[in-house]
Amino acid sequence: MKQHMPTISQFFGIVIQMFWREHAPPHFHALYGEYESLIEIRTLDVIKGSLPRRAQALALEWAALHRAELMEDWNLY
After folding, report:
1. What is the pTM of this model?
2. Do residues 77 and 18 lie in contact, with contact meaning Cβ atoms separated by under 8 Å?
3. What does the alpha-carbon distance between residue 17 and residue 2 come to, in Å, rounded to a whole number?
4. How far apart are CA 23 and CA 38, in angstroms?
């Protein structure tokens, strides 16, 4: 079972989380209903999964604005 840190952000039904002790590359999980995508922080490439098109666009836009904070969170954990 994965142990995760508290949710980093929530907006428009999208939940952004990072999990403890996860593998490289640095990434976060974007969840929207039953959908989930893993997004690499440095490149904003989707590593795995998908969200509905509009939710994915919002998650990527949010990540672009918060990339430095996401990397800081990753490095802390």
Report:
1. 0.87
2. yes
3. 12
4. 12
Residues contacting residue 30 through CB under 8 Å, at least 6 positions apart:
14, 15, 16, 36, 37, 38, 39, 51, 55, 56, 59
Q: Structurally, how many domains does the chain consist of? A: 1
* Structural domain contains residue 13: yes
- What's at 38, amino acid-wise? L
Q: Residue 51: what pLDDT? A: 98
Which domain does 17 fall in, by range? 9-76
At residue 20, does pLDDT exceed 90? no
Reported as a single tens digit per residue, the pLDDT across 21-77 is 778 899 999 999 999 999 999 999 999 999 999 999 999 999 999 999 999 988 887
- 49 in a domain, yes or no? yes
Contact between residue 9 and residue 18 where contact means Cβ atoms under 8 Å apart: no
